């Protein structure tokens, strides 16, 4: 068994680490405080091929693999978790499904400019009254004159305030339940498309999130992604990949907190010596490092399976479940190592703790990951 990275994978990891250290880490606290969207840095990520790491270069992407994507997400999120999720939504939740389910004509229009980073995409599944029970959506797509008329509301949409297009899921045949859901691509310029005001979030505050309203938006038939009634499968398959991205985001957040806790423990003195000399602190650091490595291995396994083209739903769910819950434990311990200072805004560990919390909720809560894992276990 070989878990060595290839030369290309090491290069992308190092490039992202350097970028995070120079461009993200020094700004992340300020962006968090001001809810600032890092447009300039997102443009630079696009220039490095990171807004669509695993999309082939013929479609404007980075032409790398899913393991490289996980490495990039870890490093970027270590620098700024908000920037990490802007990148992951465009990569996994927008470009990936258009690549997988789109026709060549759709890819030319709806993938190329988004993969190259000229435009930004978002994914609209969640609604005010349907989150975990995604198939309970109320947004309707009614057939009319060579297309569909969309009406309804979506909420908690990451990249919603900035997106140029939305991959949206709507009911074309409500009595059929999940088999009546269809996916569509809608430009933000469409008549009747309205954005809500940005949400004031606890963490990942550099990324924009808002509700989206569809007030009789006409979508031509050519902009339907996949067949009628296949939308739920498009959403589920997309989320499998998305969960690798969020797991890697959680990993990056945890690593940032761990590295800061280790540095602080070596500097801070108590009882006449650095607190790193005490086993109480050493054991915390040892547990943090072990959990970080365990999460990374689960993420790499899921990403490698995705690259092999086999079903990886359960492995992605395990990676996300473990990495997100690990990130909350590790960031909390990092606060503990910092003592009272960790509970102030003078240090970054409180931000990492706030940033970690959402990774246990979006792209499927921890409870949903357990549902997915258990369903797969019981199939055997
Ligand atoms: N790939 C392909 N098809 C899949 C699939 C997958 N991973 N998972 C399920 N399916 C198919 C099944 O095969 C089944 O097909 P058939 O009817 O043809 O047999 C169909 O989908 C229904 O499957 P289930 O019966 O398992 O569906 P369910 O209704 O019981 O729900 C669920 C499954 C796992 C709970 C699902 O609803 C779910 O994942 N919910 C969570 C939703 C979620 O993650 N939302 C996140 C929003 S996006 C977000 O957060 C983005 C952001 O802003 C960052």
Quick structural gist:
This protein has 380 residues and is an alpha+beta fold.
Describe the structure.
Strands 1-4-5-8 form a four-stranded mixed sheet. A four-stranded antiparallel sheet has the order 2-3-7-6, with helices on one face. It folds into three domains: 109 residues, Orthogonal Bundle (Butyryl-Coa Dehydrogenase, subunit A, domain 1); 111 residues, Butyryl-CoA Dehydrogenase, subunit A, domain 2 (Beta Barrel); 147 residues, Butyryl-CoA Dehydrogenase, subunit A, domain 3, CATH 1.20.140.10. The chain is globular. It is built from ten helices and ten strands. The chain is 53% helix and 15% strand. The protein is of the alpha+beta class and 380 residues long. The two termini are 25 Å apart. Bound molecules: acetoacetyl-coenzyme A. The site of acetoacetyl-coenzyme A has 25 residues, from helix 4, strand 3, helix 6 and helix 10.
Characteristic key phrases:
380 residues, alpha+beta, Butyryl-Coa Dehydrogenase, subunit A, domain 1, Butyryl-CoA Dehydrogenase, subunit A, domain 2, Butyryl-CoA Dehydrogenase, subunit A, domain 3, four-stranded mixed β-sheet, four-stranded antiparallel β-sheet, 53% helix, 15% strand, globular, binds acetoacetyl-coenzyme A
Order of helices and strands: HHHHHEEEEEEEEHEEHHHH
The main β sheet shows up as: 4 strands, mixed
Structural class: alpha+beta
Please provide the count of β strands.
10
Tell me which ligands are bound.
Answer: acetoacetyl-coenzyme A
CATH topology of the largest domain: the name is Butyryl-CoA Dehydrogenase, subunit A, domain 3
Question: Major sheet: order of its strands?
Answer: 1-4-5-8
CATH class of the largest domain: Mainly Alpha
Look at the structure and name the CATH superfamily of the largest domain: Butyryl-CoA Dehydrogenase, subunit A, domain 3
The unreliable regions are none
Question: Level of helix content?
Answer: 40-55%
